[in-house]
Amino acid sequence: MKNEWVAMLESSNWLAKLCYLSDIFERINVLNRTLQGKGTNLMLFHDKIKVFLATLALLKDKVSRSRFVLFPRLSVHMEESENIEIEPLSHEITEHIQSLIGHFENYFPELDVQSFTVARDPFSAPLDTTT
Q1: What is the pLDDT of residue 3?
Q2: What's the 3-state SS for 21-75?
Q3: How far apart are CA 83 and CA 12, in angstroms?
Q4: What is the pLDDT at residue 85?
Q5: Residue 101 near residue 60 (C-beta atoms within 8 A)
């Protein structure tokens, strides 16, 4: 068993996946912290989730083209390591990000943002949304 763990820690491909997970969990933790605390409301919550989903889509697009620069730990590891299999790594990360997008869309369904217009800016909201 110990040899299996040692082999994983010596594998550049396995460490690349670990670096990716560290980078993506850091982004999720930042999102989590911004959704907490005073001054948080449903409108801000909705906006931050939408921005995070757009960021995930951007990350997925970059990774699908084997561009990992938006993942700092993974980028450093890839620069310092040899023999990393780029295509399988890119494919796995792309699938994982797509899975994250699906889970976020499932947990945070689209809200009726038209109902927020009066609360966001009551002077520019159309009159028919106030009823």
Answers
A1: 83
A2: HHHHHHHHHHHHHHCCCCCCCHHHHHHHHHHHHHHHHHHHHHHHCCCCCCCHHHH
A3: 7
A4: 94
A5: yes
| Average pLDDT along the chain, 131 residues, taken 10 residues at a time | 79 94 98 90 88 97 96 96 93 98 92 66 62 49
- CA separation, residue 10 to residues 4, 14, 52, 87, 105 (Å): 10, 8, 33, 20, 36
Structure tokens at 89: 């790594």
- Provide the 3-class DSSP secondary structure of residue 83: coil
* CA-based radius of gyration for the chain: 20
- Rounded-to-integer distance, Cα 97 and Cα 61, Å: 10
Written as six digits, the tokens of 13 are 């491909």
Alpha-carbon separation of residue 94 from 5, 61, 105 (angstroms): 25, 8, 17
Question: Interhelix angle for 12-34 vs 42-64, to 10°?
Answer: 160
DSSP, res 110? P
Question: What's the confidence (pLDDT) of residue 102?
Answer: 96
Counting Cβ atoms within 10 Å, is residue 59 exposed (0-12), middle (13-18) or buried (19+)?
A: buried
